[in-house]
Amino acid sequence: MGQCRYCHENAGWFRRQHSDCQRAHARAVAEIDRMGKDAALRGRGLDTLLDDIRRVAAAGRVDVGGSAMQDILVRAWGLAVDESLEDGVFKPEERQNLNRFRVHFGLGEDILNRAGHFDTFRMMHLIGMIQNNEQIPRFDRRAARARFGRFPFNLMKSEEMVWVFREVPYYEQVTTREFQGSSLGVSVRVAKGVYLRPGAFRGRTVSSSSMQRTDTGTMGITTKHIYFGGTQKAFRVRLDRIVSIMPYSDGLGIMRDRARAKPEHFGLTEHNVWFAANLVEAIQSADDLALPGSDDGTLDDIVGAMVTGDAADIIDDDDDDDDDDDGNLVPVSVLGSS
Ligand SMILES: [Zn+2]
Asked: How many CB atoms are located within 10 Å of the residue 154 CB?
């Protein structure tokens, strides 16, 4: 006789669960996801969230012991990040609320990045700052050198590097066939302040008989240019001379504004294509970008700085009574390197 995995009562021959128990469990999981995601997006109800989750979990026999509660919170935060992308706009309140949630529950960068959501958060942060005409973060050259080795670009004084991608394949059209404007992809044009949603370009790939990989190198996006530095080629393209940006599931295509321009592609993951297309678009539509000084914060400083401020507030308000209940939450340092 089989024992129900939820209520541990007899479930009948060859059965591992009662269908009622399974339904109650699925309902509870969905409700917990909804509550957690809501709290992360709105930054409200954080003090009661764990009790609310435990109450719903008990009704549906959802495991919240050991590291399970932390997994629930991490998942909720990721769902909130995904949802905040879905409406195509990343509001400053959303950034603050997501930060408040992760600080409140001591969720660090590594654990939140298990499915890449923290990287997405940093990317959204950067695009949101540009869209809101906030000051551009200072590019962390020291960290970049440590990560990438020699930094291959000589920037102009009037620009700031905002993002660097490594080991990017570069493709050019090599056939003599005249390029047919619409045949290789549709250019993105989104309204100012609005995102291209992830997955909007799924399925289209850069691979085409007329495109050939001619180099691999580092690609940098600054407030003025796309830079590329490979073993064969090194160039920069002014962003205001790019007439179309073509996102593919495996690369970003550009067309320059000049006679007989041919498409050029930078091979990137789908997620990075989403980011790079939106970043270039945001910079192109920004009215005037305030460049950082040498004392200003890097993106990591800025993401971390919000954490520090919010953390202090929350610790002051916090009630110590529930410390025992939170014993299964592993505190993770979320503060930056400072
Ligand atoms: Zn049962």
From this structure: 9
Ligand 1 centroid – CA 329 distance (Å): 28
- Rounded to a whole number of angstroms, the CA Rg of the chain reads 24
Which ranges in the chain are annotated with CATH 2.30.29.30?
Answer: 141-291
How far, in Å, from the CA of 242 to the mean position of ligand 1? 61
Ligand 1 centre and the CA of 31: distance in Å?
Answer: 19
Domain 141-291 has CATH 3.30.2130.10: no
- pLDDT tens digit string along 98-144? 999 999 999 998 999 998 899 999 998 898 888 888 889 999 888 77
Cα separation, 261 vs 68, whole angstroms: 55
Per-residue DSSP letters for 142-161?
Answer: HHHHHHHSS------TT--E
Q: Is 117 exposed, middle or buried (0-12, 13-18, 19+ CB in 10 A)?
A: buried
Distance 8 CA to ligand 1 centre (A): 6
Query: Cα(23)–Cα(71) distance, rounded to whole angstroms?
Result: 21
Distance of CA 53 from the midpoint of ligand 1 (Å)? 20
**Half-sphere exposure of residue 50: CA atoms within 13 angstroms, side-chain side:** 19
CA distance 73 to 107: 8
Query: What six digits make up the tokens of 79?
Result: 């769902």
Residues with Cβ within 8 Å of residue 277, at least 6 apart in sequence: 188, 196, 245, 247, 252
State pTM to two decimals.
Answer: 0.78
